[in-house]
Design a protein that fits this description.
By secondary structure, the chain is mainly alpha-helical. Helix content is about 55%, strand content about 10%. The two termini are about 15 Å apart.
Amino acid sequence: MNPDKSITETEKEIIEEFALFDSWDDKYEYIIDMGKRLPPLDPKYKIDENRVKGCQSSVWLVAGFQKGKLFYEADSDAMIVKGLISMLIRVLSGRTPDEIIEARLDFIREIGMTTHLAQTRSNGLLNMVKQMKHYALAYKIKDPVPTKN
């Protein structure tokens, strides 16, 4: 997560990183490596109310709100899924609720995730995005006054 870069710039970075790999085996390995770098989620958050519904694997997602921005933490029991959620955190964490709600997340399609993931993982990815946007909407309603950077 780099707060100095826009969502679009961060997405572009990810697209460029994936372009370096010729095969999907290499891309999956990269996704797994990203998941390994995701800080572990405190076990106290690995409860049912933090599970992302509709994911075949267990995925836990929590959000905190500081100075008008959301910060996500997550974990999964599946390495590829952990890598996928780490990419979403990289793009969306540290952003305002409006930025998250409005994010199109075109990088998912651009890097080929929509065509190369199994249907169950693709559905899980969409549910992770929905949950992250749901948190953003909840915090926007809770704190509707826009804050200045």
